[in-house]
Amino acid sequence: MAITASAVNELRKMTGAGMMDCKQALQETNGDMEAAVDYLRKKGQKISAKRADRDATEGAVIAKSSADFKTGVVVKLSCETDFVAKNEDFVNLANSIADLALAEQPADVAALLNLNLGSETVGERLINEVGKIGEKIEIPEYAIVHGDCVVNYIHAGNRIGVLVEMNQAANDAIVAAGKDVAMQIAAMSPVSVSENDVPEDVKQRELAIGMEQARAEGKPENMLEKIAMGKLQKFYKESTLLKQTFVKDPGLTVEGMLDGVSKGLTVKSFSRVALG
């Protein structure tokens, strides 16, 4: 049967699929609009399966905090190309998923995918988006944080999202300090909050590297361990958040900056999610 332009346009508005895909769907289903919608959904599933092994290293990372700063979420919605990642509809979808996560507070990615986003689940929506866009789209990372004050920050055009959990209740000064810390985390990518939180395997690796460097420099064997311990302390200063030099004021550490804002103020945890 002849497929009218108005029917193609109606299906496009309903599904967001491309003009040619909509026309083909209507031709395959003899103009049955409901069947054409199902056809496009099945096509999306097939494309999704075909692209499952592709690398989705672009996308958008969205971090959000609740109005009372008691909860924060960060969601990474990945795709294959920068062109799709910068598309307004893609970014809007990432924001919608983050809003849903903040409202419903799912525990993990699996629970998030099962939440209803309009008339379909998040998982179904992603499959349909694959059918429309023709790229692999997924949520590889999601985190939720609860605390006295959870501050969010999005860096570099949705490429990095950060949540920072502070140990004191939110006020303007503490939220502002949390933003500064989140910017520090985005830029400096610390391995942990403090040296006490550094995983044991990371410590041992740094000690081993330090000993090998000292040995290569010709240092005496009985001095290698002491030299390696000194290098480990330098690693703590450069790579643990509280000991890092505060980027906005090199005369302070992050720990010192926080204590100056409010006595005893510190970071309990953070979550940093980045593309790539």
Keywords, separated by commas or semicolons:
three-stranded antiparallel beta sheet, alpha+beta, 8 strands, Helicase, Ruva Protein, domain 3, 276 residues, Tetrahydropterin Synthase, Chain A, 3 domains, 49% helix, GTP Cyclohydrolase I, Chain A, domain 1, 11 helices, elongated
Summarize the structure.
This protein is of the alpha+beta class. It has helices at residues 5-15, 19-28, 33-50, 82-85, 88-104, 109-113, 122-133, 172-188, 200-216, 224-239, 254-261; strands at residues 58-65, 71-79, 116-117, 120-121, 138-146, 149-155, 160-166, 267-274.
Summarize the structure in words.
This protein has 276 residues and is an alpha+beta fold. The protein has three domains: 5-50, Helicase, Ruva Protein, domain 3 (Orthogonal Bundle); 58-186 and 267-274, Tetrahydropterin Synthase, Chain A (2-Layer Sandwich), CATH 3.30.479.20; 195-260, GTP Cyclohydrolase I, Chain A, domain 1. The protein is built from eleven helices and eight strands. The protein has a three-stranded antiparallel sheet with strand order 1-2-5. The protein is elongated, with a radius of gyration of 24 Å. The two termini are 47 Å apart.
